[in-house]
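Each lists chain and fold; for instance:
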Amino acid sequence: MAVANTGAVNGDVVVPDELANNVFIGTIAKVLDPIYNWSRRNSIWPVTFGLACCAIEMICTASSRYDLARFGMEVFRATPRQSDLMIISGTVTKKMVPTIVRLYNQMPEPRYVLSMGACASGGGPFKEGYNVVDGIDKFLPVDVYVPGCPPTPQALINGLIALQEKIDQQSIATAPWYNKKDPTAGIYPVPVLGPDLVDLRQLDLIRQEAAKHPVEDPVRAAEAEPTQPPDVAGAPKTVEPQTAGPQ
């Protein structure tokens, strides 16, 4: 009896000719991945979230003129717990970063981040500002960057299509949200805002740098100050004014 080699699995599986058109040999991931990715790529719900002028362009993109419903992305949710996508649209200040990270942690997996505009991606024209973070990717994993200041609605749609193409490449077998050891999965520590923004993931580095420059104890510094000599210590506090004599 002649048999046909399907070339599936390890290439050593043989199937009879009469069954070759009726038997499919593969993995569960190969069967489910197209359906799984198709359902996710066409039902991405962004969180209702805007920071600055890029948010105006994001709002325009959601209008009827550009029709985001073609991509299944028109449903902006008012809560991160029902959202798949966070669009960082605008300048990211140090005061806003803890709130952004906290909202991201509340989003269920799978979740994505789109950095919209020059400010969100690298600080933009405010990069040298004392209160501006030069890129949200220092605190969150960014999937797609959309350049521009601000990007047009067409540019944002192009970024959303790029996100769909990225979703098409994902597999259930290697998805980070199913792998507990993946560094991008799980809860991200919320930065602490004090005199400056402190990333808790860098505490060890901060301690090492602080150890190189120890802060002097003010009490010991006061005790180590040299004392004044006796003639100076006993000198009068005030000096009597001298009166001019007769000419």
Notes: The first strand starts at residue 3 and ends at 5.
